[in-house]
Specification:
Blueprint (H helix, E strand, L loop, with lengths): L3 H6 L7 H11 L1 H13 L8 H29 L1 H12 L27 H12 L4 E4 L7 E5 L5 E5 L1 H9 L1 H13 L14 H26 L6 H40 L1 H15 L4 H4 L3 H9 L4 H32 L4 H18 L1 H17 L2 H5 L1 H26 L90 E15 L2 H11 L3 E4 L4 E4 L7 E6 L3 E11 L3 E13 L4 E18 L2 E18 L1
Parallel strand pairs: 1-3
Antiparallel strand pairs: 2-3, 4-5, 4-11, 5-6, 6-7, 7-8, 8-9, 9-10, 10-11
Helix pairs in contact: 2-10, 3-4, 4-9, 4-10, 6-8, 7-8, 8-10, 8-11, 9-10, 10-11, 10-14, 11-13, 14-15, 14-18, 15-18, 16-18
C-alpha cells in the first residue's frame, strides 16, 4: 500500500536492524537446533545423581527456548490475520463503530453550532491522513497507550487504549505525537515484527523469569545439595549463563533502534517538544516494569528526540545494533574462557583458543557481512531529500552512515588478518595432568586422571580435542577400580560350590533393614542413597547358587565359595547408552541366621565412563564411587 505522506515526512532513519535480526536467526536456525539437541542428548546425560541430569536437561531447555520464540515469530509473520485475531481477543480491541465503542447520541443544542467529532473519528481521520488504510481499534484496558499490529499482509491496525484516549481529551497535540510514533513503525513494515502480539517482544518480556526459574533456581539447588561436582555440568552452567544476555542483546538492540527511529519520525512531523511532552505524560503508565527492556528508557528517548539532528544521536541510531553485535562477541569470549578452564585446559591455552575462535567467528558467521551490506545499501534506499537542502544535515548524515560502514568493515578486516592462531593440538594438548588430556588418550575415554579411581569423591573430569572430527562411538566398558575390596579371592563357581546342608528348592528374602551404609569412595549421601534403594528389595537364591534381586541396577551374584553358614558371591553388570558405559561390581557375603533370617554384607562399586562429541569436539568424563553396606534379610 502506498503511503506518500510517511515517505515525505521521514527521509532518514536507522537501518532495519529488526528485520536483519529475524533474518540472521533464520539463517542460523539449523545450526542452533543441532547444537541445542546435541547438548540435550550429550551433556544432559552427565551428573552422578539424578539431580545433576535434571539440571543439565533444564539448561538445555533454556537454550532451546529462543528457538520456539523464533518459530512463533515466523508463524506470526506468515499468518498476520491469525495474529490480529489473537491480539484483538487478548486486549479487547473493538472497531470504533462497535456498539460498545460507538459514540453516544449528541445532546440537543444550538442547531447552528457544528457538533464536535467524536475522539475515535478524529483519531481515525488523523491516522488515515498520514498513513492511508490504517485502521484504529479501541480498548478500555489500562497499562498501554497505543500499539501497532498487522491486520493482514497489506493492512495495519493501531490499538488505542484508555491512557491515550484520556491524553487526547487533555492534550490533543501530544496524543497525535503518540499516534505518529506508532505510524512511524510502518516506514519499514515493523508492525509485522514488533507491536502487539510480537514474539520478539514476548521473548524479552519472559526472559528474566526464564533466567530465574530455569537457570538460577536449578543451579542454586545443584550447589546447595552438593551435586555440582561434574566439571562438564559446571561448564554447561557457565555457557548457559553467558548465553542469557547474548540472547537478549541483539533483540533488545533491534527493538530499541526501531523505537528510537519511530520517535524521530514523530518529532520531525509533530515537533520535538510535543513528543517530549507526550513521553512525560505516558511515562508511568506505559513504560513500567519489564517494558523497560523492550522500550528504551524514557530519559534516553527524550534526549534523543531533543537532539535528533545532532551527529551523536544519528551515530547512536545507526551503530546501536552493530555495537551490540560486538558486545555479544565479547560475551561469548568471556563465557568460553571459564568453560574451557572447567574442562581442564590451562589458562594460557584456553585464552589463546578462545581468542582464535572469536577471531575466526568475525568472518565465518554471516552477521558482520550482513551488517556491512545493510549499511552500504541503506543510504541508497532512503534517499534523503531534506538532507540535500540542508548542508549541515547532509554532513551529519554522511558521518553517521560512514561510521555504519566503517565499523563492520574494520572489524572484518581485522578478522581476515592472521593475528591469533590456535595453540598446537588444541586447548588441552599440554595438560597431561588434567582430567582427561584427550590428545594422549584413546577415543574410548578409559583414562580419566588420578582422581577418577576408587578414591575419587564422585567427581568427574572432562576434556576436548579440536583435531579432526572424532566419531560418535560410545566408550569401552570401564576397568575395575583398583584396590576394590573382596570378601574372598577367586572366580564364581559354575556349580555353586559344595552345599550339603542346602534345603531343596530356591529361597527368597526381602530386605528388613539396612543396618549400615558407609562410603569407600564418594560421599556419605551417595552411600545412603544406595542403601535407600535397597530397602524393601526382594532377593532370590536359586538352585544354581546365584543370588538375584528385583532391582534392575544390581548384577547377578554368583557363588564363589560356601560353607555351612556363609556364602560368598560376586558379580558385575554393565549398562550402555550412546554416550556412556556404566559398570557396577558387587562382592557379597550371605550369612545364614536363626530361622529364615540372614545377613547380607555388600561391597559395591560403580564407574561411569562418558564420551560425547559436540561441535566436532570430544568430551570425556569418568566418575567412580564405592560403598560398603550391611542388610538384614527375612524369609
Amino acid at each position: 500500500m502506498r503511503r506518500p505522506p510517511l515517505r515525505a515526512a521521514s527521509s532518514w532513519g536507522p537501518p532495519p536492524w529488526l528485520w536483519l535480526t529475524l533474518v540472521l536467526f533464520l539463517t542460523q536456525l539449523p545450526t542452533l537446533i543441532g547444537h541445542a539437541l546435541g547438548v540435550g542428548t550429550g551433556l544432559g546425560q552427565f551428573g552422578e545423581a539424578g539431580l545433576g541430569r535434571f539440571v543439565t536437561a533444564v539448561l538445555s531447555l533454556v537454550q532451546l527456548l529462543p528457538l520456539f520464540f523464533l518459530l512463533a515469530a515466523v508463524l506470526a509473520l506468515l499468518a498476520p490475520r491469525a495474529r490480529c485475531h489473537v491480539v484483538e481477543r487478548r486486549y479487547g480491541l473493538l472497531a470504533p463503530d462497535d456498539p460498545l465503542m460507538a459514540p453516544p447520541a449528541p445532546a440537543p443544542g444550538n442547531p447552528g453550532e457544528p457538533a464536535e467529532p467524536h475522539f475515535s473519528a478524529a483519531m481515525s481521520a488523523f491516522a488515515d491522513e498520514h498513513a492511508p488504510g490504517t485502521r484504529l481499534r479501541l480498548s478500555t484496558q489500562d497499562g498501554l497507550s497505543a500499539r501497532v499490529y498487522p491486520g493482514s499482509w497489506r493492512t495495519t491496525r493501531i490499538g488505542v487504549f484508555a491512557p491515550l484516549v484520556h491524553l487526547w481529551q487533555t492534550d490533543v497535540e501530544a496524543a497525535r505525537a503518540v499516534l505518529l510514533h506508532e505510524l512511524g513503525h510502518l516506514r519499514q513494515g515493523e508492525q509485522h515484527v514488533t507491536g502487539l502480539g510480537s514474539p520478539f517482544t514476548a521473548l524479552v518480556r519472559v526472559w528474566p523469569y526464564v533466567l530465574a526459574g530455569f537457570v538460577v533456581l536449578p543451579v542454586t539447588l545443584l550447589f546447595a545439595t552438593g551435586n555440582a561436582t561434574a566439571r562438564l555440568t559446571l561448564a554447561e552452567v557457565v555457557l548457559v549463563l553467558a548465553s542469557v544476555p547474548k540472547v537478549l542483546l541483539l533483540v533488545v538492540a533491534a527493538l530499541w533502534s526501531a523505537e528510537l527511529g519511530a520517535d524521530r519520525f514523530a518529532a520531525r512531523t509533530a515537533g520535538a517538544d510535543t513528543v517530549v511532552r507526550a513521553l512525560h505524560r505516558l511515562e508511568k503508565g506505559d513504560h513500567g516494569g519489564l517494558a523497560r527492556l523492550y522500550h528504551p528508557p524514557v530519559r534516553m528517548r527524550i534526549r534523543c528526540v531533543s537532539r535528533a539532528e545532532t551527529t551523536g544521536v544519528q551515530l547512536l541510531l545507526t551503530l546501536l545494533w552493530p555495537l551490540t553485535l560486538l558486545a555479544q562477541l565479547l560475551l561469548t569470549t568471556l563465557g568460553a574462557v571459564p568453560a574451557y578452564a572447567l574442562l581442564g585446559a590451562s589458562s594460557d591455552r584456553a585464552v589463546r583458543q578462545v581468542l582464535a575462535l572469536a577471531h575466526e567467528s568475525l568472518t565465518a558467521q554471516p552477521a558482520w557481512w550482513a551488517t556491512l551490506a545493510v549499511a552500504l545499501v541503506w543510504p541508497l534506499v532512503t534517499g534523503g531529500r531534506p538532507a540535500r537542502r540542508d548542508p549541515s544535515a547532509t554532513a551529519r548524515s554522511t558521518k553517521a552512515y560512514a561510521a555504519a560502514v566503517l565499523f563492520p568493515a574494520v572489524l572484518l578486516f581485522v578478522g581476515l588478518l592472521p593475528l591469533v592462531s590456535r595453540p598446537p593440538g588444541g586447548a588441552f594438548a599440554d595438560d597431561p595432568a588434567g582430567p582427561t588430556a584427550p590428545a594422549a588418550r584413546a577415543p574410548s575415554g578409559d583414562g580419566a586422571g588420578a582422581g577418577a579411581g576408587a578414591g575419587a569423591e564422585g567427581g568427574a573430569g572432562g576434556g576436548a580435542t579440536t583435531t579432526a572430527c572424532p566419531s560418535r562411538a560410545a566408550p569401552r566398558d570401564p576397568a575395575r577400580p583398583p584396590g576394590l575390596l573382596r570378601f574372598t579371592p577367586g572366580k564364581p563357581s559354575s556349580s555353586g560350590g559344595s552345599e550339603p546342608d542346602r534345603p531343596p528348592g530356591r529361597r527368597t528374602f526381602r530386605t528388613l533393614d539396612v543396618t549400615s551404609a558407609a562410603p569407600l569412595s564418594g560421599t556419605r549421601t551417595q552411600a545412603q542413597e544406595v542403601g535407600d534403594r535397597l530397602r524393601g528389595a526382594r532377593w532370590t537364591l536359586h538352585d544354581d547358587g546365584t543370588l538375584t534381586a528385583d532391582l534392575a541396577e544390581l548384577p547377578v551374584l554368583r557363588t564363589t565359595s560356601v560353607d555351612a553358614t556363609t556364602r560368598l558371591l560376586t558379580g558385575e553388570r554393565t549398562e550402555r547408552t550412546d554416550v556412556s558405559a556404566t559398570t557396577t561390581w558387587m562382592e557379597a557375603r550371605l550369612v545364614a541366621g536363626a530361622g529364615r533370617t540372614a545377613r547380607l554384607d555388600l561391597i559395591r562399586a560403580a564407574t561411569r565412563d562418558m564420551r560425547v562429541v559436540v561441535d566436532c569436539r570430544e568430551f570425556t568424563s569418568t566418575s567412580s564411587t564405592a560403598q560398603r553396606l550391611s542388610l538384614s534379610l527375612g524369609g
